[in-house]
């Protein structure tokens, strides 16, 4: 697992409380993860998430994943956990506007120590967000604690690809993205197994390269003005960010970063 120093919860909260978070939502939509709706549906189907189930979304951001699950998988109830006050407040408002506040609740807390009741969820969910968590071991342990025996842990995340990152590539990528570290598919598999889970799926979705191409095309061909407006029309900053995204594009196409998909069943 590649790591950098000096990036933690405070830096991540800064991203999603300010213009960086707005930029990601501009580019990726309300579902701020690679593949949007199609990715969510794929994960839900592989994990067999369905009617009447109750789940917990760790690093839920504005709750888009929970609204998807309630609307399209007929999930009975969701609890979202996130440590950034701005997105929790935004999520509560969006759920209220969508008429879903009776089925979705938010908890402002560190996802590694949520204080949710042990064994209380049929499934634990995450979408491209656990890359922001410093202690992946504690995060997986918390997911395994919350889910009931026989329940499911299902998530996607940005991971190091099979080709691997050099030290300099990892440093540049992680600092730009404000990730404290990046796990591998094998690393997540080991953590899940160490926490009493049988891993059913652990794979590269293959989505990263074409989607990063899409995001760069959107910025360059359609959303340039909108993006500039978010960052105060600072063209030098825009150029610098575009260069970092182009670097990320190179890493994705070289197989050095990927979107991993994981489905595990808690033994018991």
Can you offer a commentary on this structure?
The chain has helices at residues 9-16, 19-28, 36-47, 64-72, 85-97, 136-146, 167-177, 185-194, 208-221, 224-230, 235-253; strands at 2-3, 54-58, 77-82, 104-108, 121-127, 147-160, 181-182, 197-204, 257-266. The chain is of the alpha/beta class and 268 residues long. Helices cover 46% and strands 22% of the residues. It contains eleven helices and nine strands. It has a single domain (2-207, 257-266), classed as Vaccinia Virus protein VP39 (Rossmann fold), CATH 3.40.50.
Task: Show the helix and strand layout.
Blueprint: E1 2-3, H1 9-16, H2 19-28, H3 36-47, E2 54-58, H4 64-72, E3 77-82, H5 85-97, E4 104-108, E5 121-127, H6 136-146, E6 147-160, H7 167-177, E7 181-182, H8 185-194, E8 197-204, H9 208-221, H10 224-230, H11 235-253, E9 257-266
Parallel strand pairs: 2-3, 2-5, 3-4, 5-6
Antiparallel strand pairs: 1-7, 6-9, 8-9
Helix pairs in contact: 3-4, 7-11, 9-11
- Order of SSEs, N→C? EHHHEHEHEEHEHEHEHHHE
Instruction: Characterize the biggest β-sheet.
Output: 7 strands, mixed
Q: Supply the CATH superfamily name.
A: Vaccinia Virus protein VP39
So what's the CATH class? Answer: Alpha Beta
CATH domain fold name: Rossmann fold
Q: What is the terminal separation in angstroms?
A: 29 Å
Q: What is the number of helical segments per DSSP (H or I, 4+ residues)?
A: 11
Helix content: 40-55%
Shape: globular
* Mean pLDDT reading: 97
Q: What is the radius of gyration computed over CA atoms, rounded to a whole number of angstroms?
A: 18 Å
- How many beta-strand segments? 9
Low-confidence segments: none
């Amino acid at each position: 697992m590649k790591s950098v120093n000096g990036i933690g919860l405070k830096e991540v909260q800064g991203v999603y409380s300010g213009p960086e978070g707005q930029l990601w939502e501009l580019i990726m939509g309300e579902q701020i993860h690679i593949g949007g709706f199609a990715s969510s549906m794929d994960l839900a189907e592989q994990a067999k998430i369905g009617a009447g189930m109750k789940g917990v979304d760790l690093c839920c951001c504005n709750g888009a994943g929970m609204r998807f699950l309630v609307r399209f998988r007929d999930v009975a109830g969701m609890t979202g956990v996130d440590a950034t006050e701005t997105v929790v407040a935004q999520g509560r408002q969006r759920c209220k506007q969508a008429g879903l506040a009776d089925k979705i609740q938010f908890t402002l807390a560190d996802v590694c120590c949520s204080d949710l009741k042990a064994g209380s969820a049929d499934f634990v969910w995450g979408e491209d967000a656990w890359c922001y968590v410093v202690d992946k071991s504690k995060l997986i342990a918390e997911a395994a604690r919350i889910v009931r025996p026989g329940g499911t842990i299902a998530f996607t995340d940005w991971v190091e690809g099979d080709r691997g990152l050099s030290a300099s590539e990892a440093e540049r990528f992680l600092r730009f993205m404000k990730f404290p570290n990046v796990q591998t598919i094998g690393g997540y598999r080991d953590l899940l197994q160490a926490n009493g889970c049988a891993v059913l799926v652990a794979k590269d979705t293959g989505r990263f390269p074409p989607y990063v191409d899409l995001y760069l095309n959107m910025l360059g061909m359609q959303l340039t003005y909108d993006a500039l407006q978010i960052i105060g029309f600072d063209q030098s900053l825009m150029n610098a960010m575009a260069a970092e995204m182009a670097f990320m594009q190179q890493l994705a196409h070289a197989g050095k970063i990927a979107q991993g998909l994981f489905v595990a069943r808690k033994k018991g």
